[in-house]
């Protein structure tokens, strides 16, 4: 059986984008995100978080704050019956030239290796062109999220972008 995934950006896709989110109490889910993740999981997709977090490299958030936000995110989602198969964060800055920072595909390729995923059977959903570009560079189909999870799910079903 092909192990497919939906790679999900965090800020602006799953939760509202709080610039350099350091306080776990400020997590606010985008309407429909939790239901969409449940639906995708029930369709056999592994849910994998892939998120640029350059605030660490910029000194605007500490690694332990990033970890606390991620732990709280997972806790809130688990209470709703949603779990990630894996979570990957790039903590480098835009000028660091790393392979993991989107639009480069490093996080997706690492997840595919570690989790045994078929990237070509997978999709990335994110609110920025760099998210889509990372997915396409890895061989996945990209869906540009525009704020409406109902529309995003329909575009996944239709094979189109939203």
Protein architecture, described:
The structure is a single chain. The protein is 35% helix and 15% strand. By secondary structure, the chain is of the alpha/beta class. Strands 3-2-1-4-5 form a 5-stranded parallel β-sheet, with helices on both faces. The chain starts with a strand and ends with a helix. 33% of the residues are buried. The mean pLDDT is 94.
| Sheet having the most strands | 5 strands, parallel
Query: Which ranges are low-confidence, i.e. pLDDT below 50, for 5 or more consecutive residues?
Result: none
Q: Give the helix level as a range of percent.
A: 25-40%
- The total count of helices amounts to 5
| Rounded Rg | 15 Å
Provide the residue-averaged pLDDT.
94
* SSE pattern, N- to C-terminal: EHEHEHEHEH
Strand residue content? 5-15%
Widest beta sheet: strand line-up: 3-2-1-4-5
Structural class: alpha/beta
**What is the 3D form?**
globular
SSE layout:
Elements: E1 5-8, H1 33-42, E2 46-52, H2 63-79, E3 86-90, H3 106-115, E4 123-126, H4 129-138, E5 141-144, H5 149-158
Parallel strand pairs: 1-2, 1-4, 2-3, 4-5
Features:
about 160 residues, alpha/beta, five-stranded parallel β-sheet, 5 helices, globular
Summarize the entry for a quick read:
This protein is α/β, with parallel strands linked by helices. Helix content is 35%, strand content 15%. The protein has a five-stranded parallel β-sheet with strand order 3-2-1-4-5, sandwiched between helices.
């Amino acid at each position: 059986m092909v192990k497919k995934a939906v790679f999900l950006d965090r800020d602006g896709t799953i939760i509202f984008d709080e610039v350099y989110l350091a306080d776990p109490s400020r997590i606010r889910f985008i309407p429909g995100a939790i239901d969409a993740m449940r639906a995708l999981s029930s369709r056999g997709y592994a849910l994998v978080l892939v998120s640029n977090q350059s605030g660490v490299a910029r000194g605007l958030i500490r690694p332990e704050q990033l970890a606390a936000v991620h732990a709280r995110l997972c806790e809130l989602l688990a209470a709703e019956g949603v779990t990630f198969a894996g979570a990957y964060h790039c903590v480098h800055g835009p000028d660091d030239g790393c392979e993991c920072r989107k639009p480069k595909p490093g996080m997706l390729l690492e997840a595919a290796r570690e989790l045994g995923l078929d990237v070509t059977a997978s999709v990335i959903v994110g609110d920025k062109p760099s998210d889509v570009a990372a997915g396409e560079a890895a061989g996945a189909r990209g869906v540009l999220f525009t704020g409406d999870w109902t529309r995003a799910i329909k575009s996944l079903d239709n094979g189109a972008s939203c």
